[in-house]
Write a structure and sequence with these properties.
18 helices; single chain; Rossmann fold; 560 residues; 3 domains; seven-stranded parallel β-sheet
């Protein structure tokens, strides 16, 4: 028994490795070159890169690198991936540290744990020495990255040409610096692969596949899931939803909320049998909802499949397209680009011997296609209509589906500008370089607090006392969103956003002071395009516009 097979079975306690896992093992432990790993959802891509890295601890030799930085497209996936990695690391040694580093859980701002699970944003800030969390020690994160093995998981999911340009610049610098890295994907189109890797002198492409006896059928529904912006779920489909472990995925938060309301009112469900997932929950509630979602749908625990009793319904946006390891029996999904559909299909009949069904619903003509490009949905629909025998479990057919309908790529000019910016950041340190960002749309932080619907110094003082009185209040109740979403809430005539929180450091007193500003004190209209809603700032959302089971309401934006 060779070392790879023995390691997988004896120490990781999973079956013998697939061919692509063996290939990655051999390549990483033998010599350095960038690797692109392309393999289906549920094929053990995480294990493929984790196994050879952990094997170094068994041998006490580190030919790859002494540290692993695991980069994800969004922080909603981080906790799930960290827990999965921790389980494997414990089998090797209790002393292997696994930490999370992102805006919600800044446990490893210096990137010096043995394994750090992070987001592209945090990785970029660490590389560019642009993290305020490290104070004057801005060299440490960049130095840590230089001595690490870097994994970019689900690299196709950014969708934004600007972000792809940032990623391309990072890959080129890592390549020239001889920092080992792997880019992993199930659904990256050839157009993006060419764009990301075209300036690298050479890389190894590993394509994997797995044999499975799971059966997954799909069909196109004639009518949209929504009619005039209201859910339209017939009685026969309603019964099937209640009888099977069901996942429903739509592409806009407000639509997910409406489906959740519809099912909650029409189905006879016990408490906790239905849960809603999207990006507009507070940090505390989001974690609860993720845990509940996994508990409702068949999932793996300690390597064994757990099948929960009773009904289980998860209503979600695309936040669960990657990273969450569960397996629904029935998947209802709105039409989406090919890569999104394949990722969603990866959460249905995921395990051997399972049978699953997917029903794909068209979207309404009037802005139903958002947040995607209309042309991508049109191409996807036309391809599916012309390929009615498409086997969604055949990876070769999946790749054809993706390559023939999607043309993602990095922007050459933006990538070149980003490359220059990153080099300048490394050479001339700046704790807050304004030109460094991973995404074109800038974020703000919203904090859900129970504040009165009135102005004045009394209310302001009450808010300040509330914040000072409970140390973790802001952290637990915060939501990171796009600036456009904050503007949408700010313009609402009911004023869900009325107050801003600012922290200012008083050098003379050597203390940080809290300021709460009334955004309407100057009597300007809330729909003015003025400076009151600014990226990277913190605003209060009144609790009356937030529900723990549904998230922020009155949100009319189309951004996920």
């Amino acid at each position: 028994m060779n070392s790879c097979s023995g390691f997988y079975q004896k120490l990781l306690k999973i079956g013998p490795p697939y061919k692509h896992q063996q290939h990655i093992w051999d390549r990483l432990l033998r010599d350095y070159s960038p690797i692109l790993l392309r393999a289906p959802t549920g094929s053990g891509k995480t294990e493929a890169v984790l196994a050879p890295f952990l094997y170094q601890f068994v041998k006490n030799e580190f030919p790859i690198a002494p540290r692993l930085i695991y980069v994800l497209p969004m922080k909603v996936l981080a906790n799930n991936v960290r827990d999965r990695i921790k389980r494997y690391a414990r089998e090797i040694s209790p002393h292997i540290g696994v930490e999370v580093q992102h805006g919600d859980v800044p446990n490893a701002p210096f990137f010096i744990a043995d394994i750090v699970v992070t987001t592209l944003d945090q990785f970029l800030y660490g590389f560019a020495r642009a993290s305020r969390q490290v104070g004057h020690h801005i060299d440490i994160p960049a130095g840590s990255i230089a001595s690490s093995f870097v994994v970019f998981d689900e690299a196709h999911m950014y969708r934004d040409g600007f972000t792809f340009s940032v990623m391309r610049a990072l890959l080129e610098i890592l390549y020239k610096s001889k920092v080992p890295f792997v880019v992993m994907t199930a659904t990256m189109p050839k157009s993006l692969e060419k764009s990301l890797f075209e300036n690298l002198g050479g890389f190894t492409e590993v394509q994997g596949d797995v044999d499975t006896d799971a059966r997954l059928t799909w069909s196109l529904n004639e009518r949209p899931l929504f009619n005039e912006d209201r859910p339209e779920i017939p009685e026969d489909l309603l019964k099937r939803i209640q009888q099977r472990k069901t996942l429903i995925v739509v592409s806009q938060v407000k639509r997910a909320q409406k489906i959740y309301d519809e099912l909650s009112s029409r189905l006879d469900l016990d408490d906790g049998q239905i849960v809603l997932l999207h990006s507009r929950f507070t940090r505390a509630d989001r974690q609860k909802h993720e845990e509940q979602a996994i508990s409702l749908i068949p999932h793996k625990k300690e390597g064994k499949i757990v099948i929960p009793r009773g009904a289980g319904i998860v209503v979600s946006t695309q936040v669960l397209e990657a990273g969450i390891d569960f397996s629904a029996e029935l998947l209802l999904t709105e039409l989406a680009p090919a890569d999104s559909l394949i990722q969603r299909a990866g959460r249905c009949a995921r395990y051997n011997s399972e049978q699953g069904e997917i029903i794909i619903f068209p979207v309404e003509e009037n802005r139903g296609y958002l947040p995607y490009e209309k042309q991508h949905l049109s191409k996807t629909l036309a391809w599916l209509q012309q390929n009615v025998k498409f086997n969604i479990r055949n990876f070769a057919e999946v790749l054809a589906f993706i390559n023939e309908t999607i043309d993602y790529k990095a922007d050459d000019y933006e990538a070149r500008d980003t490359l220059i910016d990153l080099y300048e950041c490394v050479l001339y340190a700046d704790t807050e370089p304004s030109n460094i960002q991973a995404r074109k749309n800038k974020p703000v932080t919203l904090v859900v607090l129970d504040v009165p619907d009135e102005s004045g110094e009394k209310v302001k003082k009450k808010i300040e006392e509330m914040i000072w009185g409970e140390r973790d209040l802001l952290k637990r109740n915060s939501i990171d969103v796009d600036t456009c979403i904050a503007w949408s809430l700010f313009r609402d005539k009911n004023r869900p956003i009325h107050w801003e929180i600012q922290w200012k450091y008083d050098r003379e007193k050597n203390v940080t002071e809290l300021f709460v500003n009334d955004l309407f004190k100057n009597k300007r209209k809330q729909d003015d395009e003025d400076s009151r809603i600014v990226p990277f700032r913190t605003y209060i959302v009144s609790k009356k516009y937030y529900k723990p089971d549904k998230g922020i309401e009155r949100d009319d934006s189309y951004i996920i």
